[in-house]
Amino acid sequence: MQTCIHPFFGGSLPASPHTGLRPGYLASCSVFDLYRQAMASVVIALLVLTCSVGFSQGRLQFGFYDKTCPQAESIVGSVVREAALSNSNVPAVLLRLHFHDCFVEVNQIFSFSFFRSYNGPNSERHAFGHQGVGGFDVVEKAKAQLEAVCPGVVSCADIVALAARDAVALANGPEYQVPTGRRDGRISDVSLAKDMPDVGDSIQLLKNKFLQKGLSEKDLVVLSAAHTIGTTACFFMTKRLYNFFPSGGTDPGINPSLLPQLQATCPQNGDVNVRVPIDIGSEREFDSHILQNIRNGFAVLESDARLNDDEATRSVIDSYFGLLSPLFGPSFEADFVASMLKMGQIGVQGEIRRSCLAFN
Ligand code: HEM
Description:
Elements: H1 31-57, H2 72-86, H3 90-102, E1 111-112, H4 136-149, H5 156-170, E2 183-184, H6 203-212, H7 217-224, E3 231-233, H8 238-242, H9 259-265, E4 275-277, H10 289-295, H11 302-306, H12 311-319, H13 325-328, H14 332-343
Parallel strand pairs: 1-2
Antiparallel strand pairs: 3-4
Helix pairs in contact: 1-14, 2-4, 2-5, 3-5, 4-5, 7-12, 7-14
The protein binds protoporphyrin IX containing FE.
């Protein structure tokens, strides 16, 4: 059955110039679905209003490029759509890139620094925590087109933030506005990646790393749910499947009915580059299914599984699945947007790169 898509989330409206094409379909929506999605729309609209006040007090603003480069968002959108047509995992890759771009340095606001990473073997991109991060070609392509029409205006960090927003929409997730005006970092050092959350971190460490960035336990849960789309390499599964700390063997948190499947796909001493969907059963659709999987012991990534072990993070997950949650509970989509906007404020002061591949 097709999914119920509310107009606010792009389902039946003509494609937004910056969020991509999505099929309109309302016929299979129940009254509850429509009610919930209408509530989520209201929450997101209020959020955008509130945030526009908050963000314009800082450096980020909605429509920052309206006068200086009005085509900025549509150019990013068309490059992302085109890339996603030739590789369906592009939305997931771009969403992950935004997370890594945001998390590279603490306490310095309004400019992202991941693009520092192109400079040499000790550059940030080579840190363990950034293994497998991609999407640079898509960002650089958008940048080249933007430089042709508005040279020196649009930062690479903003392109990444806009591309992540478009990626979410392409995966049938919520549509939202992104405040822009970020600048690109000027230094790159592999040691700066130490604050990057690691898949094997304890729940306490994950919470601390998010807190260091001004992100709450709720943000940790909701943003981890970005794993609703995309895949992981077996590389990140090996420890969990065969050498789990402290006693070796398998992570007891893995549901026994999932374990054989994971071990068959990622055999011990097998090819660590083989990829596994992270949200088993719904890896292409942006939805709260990943949280249901985590609750049921079907988390693929260890860091996701830990969210269900801790009382505080578990209660955030549970809040989306209570008896009355469909009617009166929080909206996962609205919460995700709120956390993305919060995460999108982390960064450093810097410059507007001419190319995303090098400092000016
Ligand atoms: C709690 C901290 C997190 C940890 C430890 C973590 C770890 C990982 C790992 C190990 C992978 C697999 C990478 C690969 O094999 O290529 C992955 C994939 C992914 N992550 Fe996270 N992640 C975290 C939070 C986030 C956040 C906050 C977002 C975005 C808001 C995000 C978005 C994604 C996406 C979309 C993928 C799939 C990428 C693909 O298909 O290529 N992650 N993550």
